[in-house]
Write a structure and sequence with these properties.
Rossmann fold; 190 residues; alpha/beta; five-stranded parallel sheet
């Protein structure tokens, strides 16, 4: 694999994106990992106007506007990505607007044709089952159903936008064992 390959992992809540990201980072040590959730949480710790606003949004369970999420990861990549590194973007884009930003940025850094989106696909029922077991504060059945409906309404169109723009999108069966999901991802790397 060339070092400049870029991977985007996306899927509904409970699909195992984080787990698969860790496995990809172990396998391909030159990948630069970007997780917008961490960037937002770090900003929320800052005693700034933006930090306070982000903290309020995150503690209320809301979503930050696309431009801020995109600005954070774009800034992170601009200041840290080396020429021979690939990018591993975990859990973004989450809306059409963020997909537009992502595509434009990847086009700017000449990474469109070297980028592959892996959609870790699990059923609605499997997602609920996994998240209920996980026991996080926001993992009650009502919240889970809202997050899954939001995923279908917003994330799937965002993925379809990237596909229409020529970025390779590959669906992965997320209902296999962790090891088999990873093997399937590796077998589909172009």
């Amino acid at each position: 694999m060339k070092d400049s390959k870029n991977f985007i992992l996306i899927g509904p809540a409970g699909s195992g994106k984080g787990t698969q990201s860790k496995l990809l980072l172990k396998k391909f040590k030159s990948l630069y990992y970007v997780y917008t959730g961490d960037l937002l949480r770090n900003l929320a710790k800052k005693n700034t106007i933006a930090g306070k606003k982000i903290k309020k949004v995150l503690t209320s369970g809301g979503l930050v506007i696309d431009e801020i999420a995109a600005a954070l990861w774009i800034n992170d990549v601009l200041f840290n990505l080396k020429e021979n590194q690939g990018i591993l973007l975990d859990g973004s884009p989450r809306r059409i607007e963020e997909s537009i930003n992502l595509y434009d940025f990847f086009k700017f850094i000449d990474r469109v044709k070297n980028t592959q989106v892996f959609v870790i696909d699990i059923s609605y029922e499997e997602s609920i089952k996994r998240l209920i077991k996980r026991k996080r504060n926001d993992d009650n059945e009502k919240e889970i159903k809202m997050r899954l409906a939001w995923y279908k309404k917003n994330v799937i169109p965002a993925i379809n936008y990237l596909k229409k723009k020529g970025i390779k999108v590959t669906k992965i069966n997320g209902e296999q064992s962790i090891e088999n999901v990873f093997k399937e991802i590796l077998s589909k790397i172009k």
